[in-house]
Amino acid sequence: MKKRILTRFTVIMFVIGLMTAIQYNTINEPDIRDTRDVWEIRQELAREKQLHSQLLSEIESLDDTLNKYKATADASPEQALRETAGELRSAAGLTETVGPGIEVFVEPSMEAVAMGLEIEGISPDLLIRLVNEINRYNGLYVSIDGKRIINTTAIRDINGQTTVNTKPVDTPPFSIKIISESMEDSEKLYNHLLASRILDDFYIDNLTLTVSEPKDDLIIEAYDGTIDTNYLQASEGE
Question: What residues contact 127, with CB distance under 8 A and at least 6 apart?
């Protein structure tokens, strides 16, 4: 009997001690403060608003495609399917795209060339940062060194070499083509890249970015790989 009471008392004291320790750690845990200044917070807010606007535009585009399909399906189902399939292939990057855009040239910096430094390939992290920067500011269709970027594109290091769609990216110089929805969007992206901090990031790696002025009829090649459909499932209508 005494042993049972002692066991219960020990368990109760252990629970009380554990709760006390947790409360002490909670009280003494330092608050994590946001050390960003007002300008950095405003930039982050602007990026989030831009992303929200892009998502709304994509939803509107998908709604337009669905409404167009519904409108023509009754009159000519086959024609509606062909038109919808063509639009989806274009959106997926499987066809050549022509539109307003800019071209960005990645080249060795003049100082690196003058000093005879060995020019290494661009790192995957730096290339991914540039693509993210482009996507945030109305870059709709992109190709890197002739390799079309699609939703399933992977930019990674393979055996010490940066690859896009598993294909190696040339050691600079090479170019990146970007097509936007409109000439106005291309001009916004052009001005943003000229003032972006990413130019400094490239310079640290002995590289420079030269941004061409927007063009009306920039051409981006189609994706030439095979899209993995292993995880797609067909659904039957009701």
Answer: 144, 155, 162, 164, 169
